[in-house]
Structures are given as C-alpha cells and as structure tokens.
C-alpha cells in the first residue's frame, strides 16, 4: 500500500508534483498521464533520488521520505529504469546475483532464489549469456528478475513495455500479473501502453501537471471524460 499525502516536488521553483494525495492499494497499480505529468518524478521520489518539498509517503505504513535509497531497497522497494541497467560483461545469472549483495534475502539459498526468478522470467535458458548478447526483451526481463530477488514489497516499473513486440508484451503482461501472488509484492506500473495498463492494473492513477487527475478502477478512470481529454485524445 502506497499512501501519498499532500506531496510536492519542485525543480528550481517549478512544481513537478503539486500537492498529490493518493492511496494506491491494488496489487498492480497503473500510473499514466501525458508527457511531463510527473510520473517519473514520482518514481524518483519513491526511490529516494529526488527530495520532497513537502508531504509524506508511507509504504505499508512505514515513512519513506528521509530514508536513503539503500534503506528503501532494504524495506523492499525496487525499481526498473527506462534504460535497462544490465552489466554488459556479466552473465544473466551474475547480473541478477549482484542484486542479492544489496538486499536482505530470506527465501532459501542464493542458488534456489536465482533459479526461481530466472525460471519465472523465462531466462533460465540464457542464464550464462552475457548482458551484451541479450535482446531488448531479455534485458527487460533481467530488470524484472533483479527486482524480484530478496524480499520485494513494492516494484516500480518505468515503461517496461516500451519497444516490445506484441508477443513479448503478452509475456511481460503475464509476468506482471503473477508477481503479487507469487512474490508478495505490489507493482506500480508506468507505461504509455494503455492495453498493458488495462490488462494488468485494477487501479490506476492519472497524473496531469503534477496533480491527480483521476484515481480509481482502471476501466472507470479510462472512461473519465477529463482523462480522455487530457491523455487519450478523445
Ligand atoms: N531534474 C529535473 N530538473 C528540472 N526539471 C525536471 C527534472 N525532472 C523533471 N523535470 C520536470 O518536471 C516535470 C515532470 O517531468 P517527469 O519526467 O516526471 O514527467 P513524466 O510524466 O514522467 O513524463 P514522460 O511521460 O515524458 O516520461 C516536467 O516539466 C519536467 O520537465
């Protein structure tokens, strides 16, 4: 559960997030909005990369703001970036294993955990392949696998579907949908692919000019005339 209370983030006096209040409780939540709406700023704020000017954010009841990025990782917060952070000279196995050096891991042995997340992300067959030998989809799935090791509680996925083929997008969709139950983590998904949002997110927050334009069940939100005007061009 992400509880955002009256949150503002400013860059040089310009408010990228402006008094945002939202309770995101669904297992998979969508975050959409036009370019410049403040979506990436919100993810950066949650991960501890930018400070808040005011407000509060609670993750499962625990205050996030004021904690360092690594303290947030230890609380179970994980994120993927728009540009994948795969180490080119490390194998898939070692890319994911490197993440385990930084996170508490209680679920069985290292080997068992890596085997589990590589199987879940359909990367077992390429576990020994180097980062630079992977295609875009495999690189994206390495990001997902890295987010799943340890004890994740909240996964922030920033446009994981961008540039994927329809078939790859379907595989990603199935993985995202299965995460909450299989790993006990909530997912916050930013993507411009409305079909991906519709298929995976039961609750969606629409941001515009750093504010909440709409929040609620995804189908209802996407039908909202204000959302259609601001974002869907209808
Ligand atoms: N580091 C920064 N310095 C100054 N302004 C910034 C910075 N980061 C973001 N902004 C501004 O904050 C606003 C929100 O940007 P943000 O990247 O969060 O939007 P977004 O919704 O993620 O957009 P997109 O869909 O294009 O990724 C924009 O006006 C942007 O120019």
Automatic annotation (TrEMBL):
Q: Which Pfam families match?
A: ABC_tran (PF00005), BCA_ABC_TP_C (PF12399)
- Tell me which domain of life the UniProt entry assigns to the organism this sequence originates from: Bacteria
Q: Which UniProt keywords apply?
A: ATP-binding, Cell membrane, Membrane, Nucleotide-binding, Transport
Q: Which GO terms describe its cellular component?
A: plasma membrane
The ABC transporter domain covers which part of the protein?
A: 2-234
- UniProt key word Nucleus: no
InterPro entries in the record, alphabetically? AAA+_ATPase (IPR003593), ABC_AA/LPS_Transport (IPR051120), ABC_transporter-like_ATP-bd (IPR003439), BCA_ABC_TP_C (IPR032823), P-loop_NTPase (IPR027417)
User: Which terms in the Gene Ontology molecular function aspect does this entry carry?
Assistant: ATP binding; ATP hydrolysis activity
Supply the PROSITE patterns for this chain.
ABC_TRANSPORTER_2
Q: What is this protein called?
A: Branched-chain amino acid transport system ATP-binding protein
- Which SUPFAM superfamilies has this protein been placed in? P-loop containing nucleoside triphosphate hydrolases
């Amino acid at each position: 559960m992400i509880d955002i209370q009256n949150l503002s983030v400013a860059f040089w006096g310009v408010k990228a997030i402006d008094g945002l209040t939202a309770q995101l409780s669904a297992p998979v939540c969508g975050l959409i909005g036009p370019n410049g709406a403040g979506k990436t700023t919100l993810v950066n704020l949650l991960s501890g990369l930018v400070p808040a000017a005011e407000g509060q954010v609670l993750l499962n009841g625990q205050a996030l703001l004021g904690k360092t990025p690594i303290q947030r990782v230890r609380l179970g917060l994980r994120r993927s970036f728009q540009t994948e952070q795969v180490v080119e000279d490390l194998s898939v196995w070692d890319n994911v294993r490197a993440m385990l050096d930084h996170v508490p891991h209680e679920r069985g042995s290292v080997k068992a955990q890596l085997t589990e997340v590589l199987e879940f992300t359909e990367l077992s067959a390429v576990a020994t392949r180097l980062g630079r030998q992977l295609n875009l989809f495999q690189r994206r799935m390495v990001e997902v696998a890295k987010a799943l090791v340890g004890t994740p509680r909240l996964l922030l996925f920033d446009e994981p579907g961008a540039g994927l083929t329809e078939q790859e997008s379907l595989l990603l969709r199935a993985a995202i949908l299965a995460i909450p139950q299989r790993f006990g983590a909530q997912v916050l998904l930013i993507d411009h692919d409305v079909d991906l949002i519709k298929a995976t997110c039961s609750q969606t927050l629409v941001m515009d000019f750093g504010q909440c334009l709409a929040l609620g069940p995804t189908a209802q939100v996407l039908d909202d005339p204000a959302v259609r005007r601001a974002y869907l061009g209808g």
